[in-house]
Design a protein that fits this description.
The complex is a heterodimer of chains A (324) and B (494). Chain A has 324 residues and is mainly alpha-helical. Chain A has 14 helices and two strands; from the N terminus they run ααααααααααααββαα. Classes of the chains: A mainly alpha (324), B mainly alpha (494).
Chain lengths: 324, 494
């Protein structure tokens, strides 16, 4: 090749083409989305993050949670993300989500922690999985984060138990299914290892050998604030097979000064602190859990079809609509 | 095995009728690049050792999460980005720049002016990487893969890079000969694209951040282009230099090389979004990247064919030349890497392998099996010419090669199979989620085994390099500067 000029024009041109095509044009297409609201300008979704939630996001990033947890749900015609139920929960088990994720869900996300790996479950709706009575305190603690779900959104949750029951042959939403592996899971795959054979831990939230009645009362409800703290402090006390690292450096062990703190972790077995001591979350841990509780994409979006009993043919046009 | 002294490349800038004058010229060029290139190499190898140890930690902790988990800066989520960034910016970038500087000086047939500029650049680069690592360990990561360095470290890296790029301008200013050899296209491309890419990503993510999901798009656009346009371009340029050089015959087809280069620049720069397949994006972005990934078959086939035809009849030389053995391994891995890239980008496959360990296998295939192996090859060629000694132990080179080759082979195999198994369980919604992570654990343990192999390989290489650096190499009977054939002659004993 002769001459620098054509070479440089070529080098410049090819890369400029890619830069414009893959970043600038998409930016003009979906780079200026507004939050959605109804006619009266109320029921705005999503809302900007603030305060503890924002700080919790920094903790989430700083400790690399994103390398194992995604925050995006793929549409139901390419993956089974939406059909999936969370492992640890009473009946009915919360699902990963009701609909696929859309660009508008991330309008205020900075950065958008979509994730590329699932060594742990998806967290796009982990705040939604919280027990019902905790859902109302959560918006109070971080008023901007969780969205109230009035009117329009009440129909998909109502349709959910019916949908999951009709789809899976197992009585997944009956209380009995939570203490034993669901009948459909057992024969579907022969368990390759003894560890996996012990998988009731996946469905059962209380494996420690403590007396049944005591743990039942001391056990936090799955996906509640207390549950998250305990899970972060000692993941394998919740699920023996978990390979999440413990984040004990976010917690503080201290002598009980007078009365036991209200937010002290309920720990049993080898995790429990010695007599007279307690484990309490640091401010960072509280922020992290506030952030987790704020993750909720359950609010319906006009451009995305929420999964209910909807069939897949209806879902494919939704993909095209997501583009705008 | 005795290549002629005058290597009959088509480029007059390489050698037409090499005489004593040419050899003296080369010796002078090598002498002028000695300090900066060795500086880049030595830093790179130190980073390689650090990154390798970290890799072992990361791999082990993934299946044994309680190990060393109680200290904040040793938590898995911080060690992993540190490992990736050490390898990407510490090892691969520095080693690649060292090789690029040397090849550029040789191809421009000009001595390196102001080598201290490059030395200063290397220092700044090291400081930038160190700052960035400190930032990540302190919990200050930005959260974008391969861009985790906090902005203050990114600025230092950029200053360092400006110092380093200035040599290219200077060298071109003083180059001799009209022809620009294939390697120079790739190197010029890499050195033009990288700052643009890096600046664009920094700008769109941190200075004037784009909205929402576009940040993830810019992040992956950066990550994939870094892999292709920075590492890929340097790696291919090096292969185009080393293969003809060692076997002493010109590149098979100049036309194929031209086609290969421009299709590479055009198509590979459009990849990236396929990593976000089925995510919350306009479908056309992802489809465009999948199409571009499939189209990279064209440059891969042309480059592969070109290398293959150049090597035709000379494959036995790999038995003797460590440079050739590493380089050809890398060039072949490039083909496999690209084929794998096409495969996992297809939507029907991505359904299973997206969100699994398979993407880790893909990155390692590009950065290690292809790029790092090519760079190892170039180091085996270049270092003796810089220090004036020959590699001392042929056994160590062989150990290095086989430990690396088996290590990376085992690793990609484990991660690919494990990733598929993981993805299959994940796709089956009737299984509990934990089943998918449980099913991949045995493969992750196998991967830790491969980390041991790679650790051994890198320490062997570092030891050997240290011997060379401290003048403990084998003294050749003929001074290496005046006789570039010397190293090949000694390799005949391998």
């Amino acid at each position: 090749m002769k001459g620098l000029v054509p070479l440089f024009i070529g080098l410049f041109g090819t890369f400029a083409f890619s830069w414009v095509g893959l970043t600038l044009i998409p930016n003009s297409q979906i780079g200026h989305l507004d939050p959605q609201s109804d006619e009266e300008g109320t029921d705005i979704y999503p809302m900007p993050r603030s305060g503890m939630v924002e700080r919790g996001e920094r903790i989430y990033i700083g400790n690399g949670c994103v390398y194992c947890h995604s925050q995006q749900l793929r549409p139901d015609y390419v993956a089974s993300d939406i059909d999936r139920e969370r492992d640890a929960a009473p009946s009915p088990r919360p699902k990963w989500g009701e609909r696929r994720s859309a660009p508008r869900d991330y309008v205020f996300a900075r950065p958008a922690l979509l994730g590329k790996m699932r060594m742990g479950p998806d967290l796009a709706n982990i705040g939604k999985a919280a027990p019902a009575e905790e859902e109302s305190p959560a918006p109070a603690a971080s008023p901007t984060a969780a969205s109230p779900a009035p009117g329009g959104s009440s129909s998909p949750p109502a349709a959910k138990p019916a949908a999951s029951a009709s789809r899976s042959p197992a009585p997944a939403n009956s209380p009995a299914a939570t203490s034993t592996p669901s009948p459909s899971a057992g024969p579907a795959k022969p368990n390759p290892s003894p560890a996996a054979a012990a998988a009731p831990g996946a469905a059962n939230a209380s494996p420690p050998p403590a007396p049944e009645s005591e743990t039942k009362t001391g056990e936090p409800r799955p996906y509640s604030v207390a549950w998250h703290h305990r899970h972060l402090y000692s993941p394998r006390s919740i699920n023996i097979d978990s390979n999440m690292p413990a984040y004990r450096f976010l917690y503080e062990k201290r002598l009980i000064d007078g009365e036991r703190s209200a937010d002290a972790l309920q720990l049993t077995g080898s995790d429990a602190p010695p007599e007279g001591w307690e484990v309490i979350p640091t401010y960072d841990a509280q922020c992290l859990v506030a952030y987790l509780m704020s993750l909720d994409q359950s609010h319906p979006l006009k451009e995305v079809k929420s999964a209910g009993p909807a069939a897949s043919p209806a879902a494919s046009p939704a993909a095209g609509k997501t583009a705008k | 095995m005795n290549p002629a002294i005058d290597i009959p490349l088509k480029e007059p800038s390489i050698s037409v009728a090499a005489g004593d004058a040419d050899q003296i010229e080369r010796a002078l060029i090598d002498a002028s690049t000695r300090v900066p290139v060795l500086m880049f190499y030595a830093s790179a190898i130190v980073w390689l050792l650090i990154g390798t140890i970290l890799a072992g930690f990361v791999s082990f902790k993934l299946h044994s999460p309680d190990w060393l988990s109680n200290v904040s800066f040793l938590t898995w989520g911080r060690l992993r980005p540190v490992h990736m960034n050490v390898m990407v910016y510490g090892w691969a970038s520095m080693a690649g720049m060292g090789t690029a500087i040397w090849m550029m000086a040789r191809l421009c047939r000009t001595t390196l002016r102001h080598p201290l500029l490059l030395v200063a650049g290397a220092w700044f680069w090291n400081i930038g990487v160190l700052l960035g690592l400190g930032g990540i360990l302190a919990g200050d990561s930005t959260g974008y893969q391969w861009l985790e360095f906090p902005p203050y470290a990114a600025i230092v890296l950029f200053v360092a890079y400006s110092l380093i790029i200035s040599w290219a301008v200077l060298m071109f200013r003083f180059r001799r000969g009209d022809q620009i050899y294939i390697t120079q296209w790739y190197l010029l491309g890499a050195f033009l694209w990288f700052p643009w890419l890096y600046a664009a990503a920094q700008l769109m993510l941190f200075v004037i951040p784009v909205q929402g999901v576009l940040q993830a798009a810019v992040g992956w656009w950066y990550g994939n282009n870094l892999l292709f346009l920075w590492f890929g371009a340097i790696g291919l340029g090096t292969a185009y230099y080393m293969i003809p050089k060692v076997i002493g015959r010109p590149v098979y087809s100049y036309h194929l090389a031209t086609i290969g280069f421009w299709t590479y620049a055009l198509f590979s720069s459009w990849t990236g979004m396929q990593r976000l397949v089925d995510g919350p994006f306009p479908a056309w972005m992802i489809t465009a990247s999948i199409a571009a990934t499939i189209l990279t078959i064209i440059p891969v086939a042309t480059v592969g064919l070109n290398h293959h035809m150049t090597m035709q009849g000379y494959f036995p030389v790999m038995r003797y030349s460590p440079t050739l053995r590493f380089t050809v391994f890398g060039a072949m891995s490039y083909t496999v890497f690209s084929a794998l890239g096409v495969l996992i980008s297809l939507r029907s496959v991505a359904r299973y392998v997206n969100f699994t360990q398979a993407s880790v296998a893909y990155s390692h295939m590009g950065l290690y099996a292809f790029f790092t192996m090519v760079i190892f090859g170039s180091m085996y060629y270049i270092v003796p010419r810089l220090v004036g000694r020959e590699w001392r132990y042929a056994t160590l080179i062989k150990l290095h090669f086989w430990a690396s080759a088996y290590g990376i082979g085992l690793m990609t195999l484990m991660l690919l199979v494990g990733g598929y198994v993981q993805g299959e369980s994940m796709d089956n919604a009737s299984l509990p989620f934990i089943e998918s992570t449980q099913s991949v654990l045995p493969y992750l343990r196998g991967r830790t085994l491969s980390a041991l192999l790679l650790t051994a390989s890198h320490f062997i290489f570092a030891f050997h390099f240290g011997l060379m650096l401290f003048g403990l190499g084998r003294t050749a009977s003929v001074p290496t500067f005046l006789n570039p054939i010397e190293s090949e002659a000694s390799e005949a004993h391998l």
